[in-house]
Amino acid sequence: MVKKNLNLHIMIISTFLLFTMILVGSATADSYIDVPENNQEIYAVTDTETIKYMKDEDPYEGVNRKIFAFNNALDKGLVEPVAKVYRAIVPSVIRLSARNFLSNLETPIVLLNDLLQGKLDRAEITFKRFLINSTIGFFGIGDPATDMGLVNHSEDFAQTMALSGIPSGPYIVSPIFGPSTPRHLVGRVVDYATHPLTWYLADQPSDVRLSYGLTETLIIREELIDILDETEATSTDYYAAIRSFYRQRRVSEINDGIAIDSSGEYSIDRGSDLNIIF
Amino acid sequence: MYKKIRIIPLFLFLFILLYSQKSSAESCESALMFVNKVSSEATEIISSEKYTKNQRKFYFKKLFIDNADFETMGKVALGKYARKLKPEMTEEYNGLIKKLVIQMIYNRLDNEEGNNYIIINNSCKNKGSKGIEFLVNGDILGSDKRKITDITWWVIDKSNNELKVLDVSIAGISLALQKREEFTSFISNNKNSLDALINNLKDKLN
Fold first, then answer.
1. In Å, how far are A41, A49, A96, A263 from A44, measured between CA atoms?
2. What digits encode the pLDDT tens for the residues B38-57?
3. How many Å apart are CA A256 and CA B137, to the nearest integer?
4. How far is C-alpha B205 from the chain's CA centre?
5. CB count in 10 Å sphere of residue A247
6. Which residues of chain B have a CB within 8 Å of the CB of A46?
7. Do B172 and A92 touch (CB under 8 A)?
8. Mutate: best of B28, B86, B100, B127, partner A, most A CBs <10 A
9. B40-45: long-range contacts (C-beta < 8 A, 24 or more apart)?
10. Which of B108, B113, B182 sits opposite A241 (nearest CB)?
11. Best interface-test mutation with B: which of A53, A235, A238, A242 has the largest number of B CBs within 10 A?
12. Residue ranges of E strands in B26-146
């Protein structure tokens, strides 16, 4: 049974890697060595190297918008109403405990990628957080580690690939899963395949796996109720707003939350950086 | 004699270099103090129990009207379409941007559960090459003093040391960049019409 699951995981990873190589190779966003003259790009400076993403590069926008509309309809019709009921019924302290528990379960992935990226100080924090929250925090329901100054952070395999210089590829919207890039999709597959919880759930009945997946979706969606409602109410183009959210959030995560700051980058010293005239 | 003459420009250069660095540090310190003042007033207004919800919005709006550069913010949000903004549209557009941005920042700091936020701004660095822009970084803490997320303020020295907020990024998401992506996408999908954007903003905000 274990060998069968292992073969399945290897097959999934290989397929996605092949898909990614084809898609990334053909994407116009892959020309990061030759910077175009009308410079539409911005640069995020990391610890190791410069990463770029094309801020207006969405070559599959037509298809993306259709999939986005489908995802939005599914969200409005099913996921959001259930998340709102969950918020209305379940007290905030219990919802917080659920988020803590979920966050604690993600620790193996965060730790693995801290190590792969060579960030030993962050790996130490992750390890200590897991120990403290799993014991004193009662299996991750509490978060005493944060009170001790060990603040949570996110890492995943897509970020590891970004820091290795692998370009993200074009922006794509995947059905159900939403905003992504080929690199992020591959990263998610690798995270899924390497997570100990995946192996544990693989041996459980299908209703257990489904329950876990639905609960995780509900907890995440509830956290986003306010920000998504506000964004939709105030945006002139909701699709573009979500695209911008996703891109900026990923750059921030890859940069470990350090604000972008390069001379001439989004500076009003020269209006041409922002394509405006002063 | 000639050696002394050559040394003078060197000393002059060093003096200017040191003075500009000192000025830069002082300017950054001013920017940090400015942001601390604005953010503490903002959180005080939002968490105040003595004001009604409408009063809180009113005082919050006044705080940002006095301390933010909406005109530049509006141009940043238009991106390459800023040059298409005709003089007769500017006043209306700037008014809409003002209303929109204040509403967005207020909504992101306010919440249904009545949590009180504290913003602690702890570092500043220069941005750009002319020493008139600064990035002030800080943390947003909950009422339990736990860090919720990061906040970054883009501050500009307009003139005569008059500092203004140009952008606020919360959890790595910049308001200005978000609006820029939205507006440019909207305009390009509506036959490059700024009128369409302005009408859409009016509908959203009324």
1. 10, 9, 32, 12
2. 999 988 888 888 888 888 88
3. 13
4. 21
5. 24
6. none
7. no
8. B127
9. B40/B119, B42/B105, B42/B109, B42/B119, B43/B109, B43/B116, B43/B117, B43/B118, B43/B119
10. B182
11. A235
12. 118-127, 133-141
Here the ipTM equals: 0.81
pTM of this structure? 0.79
Q: Which residues contact A98 (CB under 8 A, 6 or more apart)?
A: A90, A215, A219
Q: Which residues of chain A fall below pLDDT 70?
A: 1-56, 258-278
Do B104 and A230 touch, CB atoms closer than 8 A?
yes
Alpha helices in chain A (DSSP H): 2-26, 61-74, 80-89, 92-105, 107-116, 120-135, 144-147, 157-163, 182-194, 196-202, 206-223, 225-234, 238-254
* A28 near B CB under 8 A: no
pLDDT digits (tens, 9 = 90+) for B168-199: 888 888 888 889 999 999 999 999 999 999 99
Instruction: Return all residues near A208 (Cβ < 8 A) that are at least 6 apart.
Output: A201
Angle at B49 between CA B46 and CA B55, to 5 degrees: 60
pLDDT in tens, B23-38: 666 788 899 999 999 9
Portion of chain B with pLDDT greater than 70, in percent: 84
Question: Which of B80, B97, B204 is the best mutation test for A, with the most CBs of A within 10 A?
Answer: B80
pLDDT in tens, A61-115: 999 999 999 999 999 999 999 999 999 999 999 999 999 999 999 999 999 999 9
Chain B residue at shortest CA distance from A227? B108
**Distances, alpha carbon A28 to alpha carbons A19, A34, A57, A82, A224, in Å:** 16, 11, 8, 40, 32
Any B CB within 8 A of A261 CB: yes
Closest residue of chain B to A244, computed from CA coordinates:
B178
Cα gap A224→A212, rounded to integer Å: 19
Minimum distance, in Å, between the CA of residue A115 and any CA atom of chain B: 24
Nearest Cα to Cα of residue A69 among A248, A238, A244: A238
